[in-house]
Amino acid sequence: MKAAACRFALLAHPGSRRALGFSAACAKEGFPEPRLIAWEDWLSPAFDRAAALAGIDALRIETPAENLAAERALLLRGASASRKEGSLFLPEHECPALPPDEGELRYQRQWYLGWRTVLEELGEISRTTGIRMMNAPAEIASLFDKQATREILQRDGVPLPPSSGICSSFEDLLATMQSTGWSRVFLKPCHGSSATGVMAIARSSKGAWQVVSSARLVGSRIRNSKQLRRLTDESEIRSTVDAVCGQRALLEKWFPKATWKGKAFDLRVVVIAGKAAHVAMRTSSFPITNLHLRNQRGGIAELIGSLGEPAWRKAMHVAEKAAASFPGCHYCGVDLMLGPGGKTHAVAEVNAFGDLLHRELWDGMNPWEAELRTWPSLSC
Question: What is the pTM assigned to this prediction?
């Protein structure tokens, strides 16, 4: 059967950029219109999944985030497991009434545990029906846990910043910095995305603190914004670190990033079918470079010209090696850091849904088109 005859189902939020972009790519590349299944429907106990997937050859899973109904359903799924392991959780009877709050970091571990059960079910559906997954559910689950991702990458020899593992509190952070001699570290929520709750932390030899983060403490709650800010008050930093650690966080040594025109930068590399394809250069006056935080894109052609082709190919090889650690993912986004002069590398993160680079083209294709063009015909 030709790849172009492959019938996709798409688990996504209707009307989202991801759903619209993939549907448009299917039309352009000659695939049948994908059958859109809303996450809100899929997560309903009454939903007929067998009927929704009837006649489907392959399934593309998009993120269920940024939807209140999906958040409530996933928290409900994860409540029991979260309670058993003693992490912060919302009781089952309160999940259906969870109020909307787009800015709060809430119950991340519980959300992840619920999300993992859904992915396990999707994996079982693939095994029993033969429906192929563009990205394997088990690998998506690993990629939503930064500690698990790190262990897989480390096993495969992918360059990473040094890490002390899970950080439990401000006191744990302080003890680690003192014992390792690290004066600058990154604290990353294990189940966050888009730099949510990430803290870039520096402490001088005299004990002065400086933190950059989009997270802020409001009462006992952590809220996230789209604007980075600096914290210097130790009391506020202590409380914020404790709140972030309360939802499970990974501590890494600060990797010094290369600079471009006076700003630090890193690369989001979309790897498709094992090959580095679309690349976005993210520059910032701050140590956190995510574009939605009012940071700027840099010029890739200029960067390649400055680094030289051999150095660029080496960097792309590192991104491809990171993606190869997740062979069940047809595509993923690798956040690649280059050291000063571009001579060293470290992978900051691998994102199962990291292909939302609709402005970047590769061989004339956007990411969705490239993913379909390289989808193996034998898969359907």
Answer: 0.95
